[in-house]
Amino acid sequence: MTLPWHKPAFEKLKKMIDQNHLPHALLITGAPQMGKFDLMQQLVQTLLCQDQSCGQCALCRAISKDSPKEVLDTSVLIRRSHYPNMVYCRTEVNDKGVESKNIRIDQIRAFCDALNKTADDLQIGVLFYADQMNVSAANSLLKTLEEPRDNTLIILLAHNPKNLPATILSRCQSVHIAPAYDKQTQSWLEGHISDTQNKDFDIPQLLENTHGVPFKVLSELSGDGFIHYQNWQNQLLNIAVHPAMINQVQDFEGNEVEVLNCLQNLVIEGIRLKSSKHEGGLVELNQIIKTVKTDFLFRLLDDIYHAISLSKTPVNIKLLLDNILIVWSHITRLQRYPQITKT
Asked: The domain spanning residue 29 has which CATH number?
């Protein structure tokens, strides 16, 4: 079954299939936890299954048995699917037992070799996540993308296509999974969280807090992290509406980076709402963006990004957060934006 927020992307893919215009290389993009892997699996089942992803035939069951997202204890270059003509390539544990941060050139070579073998049936190669390839690996993939064998499909999944070389992007047809705030996605979430959570949380607000990423909503609701997040969010909104509240914040100490991430999300959402001239589910945020200058939001966002990056250094993160909160508390009243961090 197609996830509701996947429908536009899947319809685009289905149109390619129906019109026999499916390219040899596809790039599926979207934020982390948007379900890019799920969309890829549905596409593969649609291509291989006689009933177009029935979920019951031998081919559909074979694909559903694949578990390439699981981290292995042993070092491998690529992984084989239960469908004999399909391979996966991802970051793997190296010979020292540590998962690599990048997809390496030797992995891409093995991936391409597997796809260069003659086969009567459709050959499929899935690379996730392509934006984790190092430069040498990306260059090694180019020849196969430029001169693929007939009856071969290469599917690249990527969180951030900007991290891919232009030479890779130009050789793939892109399909993007957009953030989802629509009623269908809200209904899907309502059906996947408990009755208690449905009573305690506002679904549209949950989607706004996660920038329209439904699976992220579920992962954050699985623990108590979202309760803390909501508490920080409410306090941050109160600070901007009532500046005197800055002296009454609780639970910020020791959680400075988490609070910065929460404020970062609020500012990003504020920019989105102000740009689209729409109101969101947070009443206080709607009130703030009516008077704040857009330029000040962008400058504050830059300072928050910088502060988060500085948190990995010996900087006094508490003092840095305090400085940012002072600006945030006066964001609707500022005449001139002050310098918070040094570049």
From this structure: 3.40.50.300
